[in-house]
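I am still getting used to backbone structure tokens and would like to learn alongside you. Please make up or recall a protein chain and show it to me in full. Would you write everything just below, so we can both look at the same thing?
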Amino acid sequence: MDLSSDEEEAILFLALEDEENGRKKGRKWVHEINLERQDFGEFHRLMPQLRQDKKRFFLYFRMSSFLPLETVFSTIGHSFRIGFETVSAIVREVCQAICRRMENIYLPEPTRAIWEKSAKGFEDIWRFPNCIGSIDGKHVTIKCANKTGSQHFCYLHKFSIVLMAIVGPDYRFICVDIGGYGKNSDGGIFENSHMGQRFEAGLMNIPEDKPLPGQIMFLLVAKHLHLNLILCVPSLIGNQKLILVKENYNMRLCKARRVVENAFGILVQKWRIFFRPIATKVETTILIIKTTCILHNFLRIKQNPSDKPSQQSVLRQLQSDPRRTTNLAFSIRGTIC
């Protein structure tokens, strides 16, 4: 059938129209919801009202950043009517600025004076001499990173990276190492970390041995890290009854060791980003954790400049433990007792 030129043009027009209608609409550069940011966005609508009420402001934000909130980028993006990638970029830039400006002030490289101050604090507050810090590792839950296999899968049956920290007697972080694979033990992470290697090489400005009446070196206290510089808690073997002096020593050692666990608890309760898996790149996650440690120290100093941990008993009764501890722990106890 022969068609006229007008009919051919009409058919071609309809075909092009059908093709155009069948195409998926492309993504807009700025979503229409975000275009109404100044009219309905949280920053422009709710923030001015919250700023007039300090209690409500703190109750809502717990501070003025992403870190204290148990939320995700998409929630913040919808709330403030900005793009999700913009939220991610803002979080990274803010964390980098905090680390750049505050790290040397609130989480500096440990000096001999810092260690000596920490040792004095452990002796005055926790009644444990020659202890320069309490060390432990915390598994921070993350979303499984791409192409990492089971490296981050830990014994808690979740994906994590490890925050290895040394904490002073006032719950402030003295030294941190972040990024260890969740599958590794705390001892293995410490040995292979930059912090652990510097301890092993004698580059951490540890003070000289100090006499008690017997001369012993300065130590870190821990639960399961069996290394030369670290003193683990001696165990009660079976039903063996220790003499009162040794029981008193074990109690003091356990109190000193629990300082790092208490510091982790304070950190998590303040920065509620730790309440759920952190769904960012590993590099960004490490940056976020480091930032929270710096801000933790900042708040401990600014909000509680004279705050001292309670000396009330945190260990009601030592439990029997069939595991053997190192001879070093027993020899140190014998020297002190």
The chain has two domains: 48-101, 112-336. The radius of gyration is 28 Å. Residues 112-336 form one domain. Confidence is low (pLDDT under 50) at residues 235-239, 307-325.
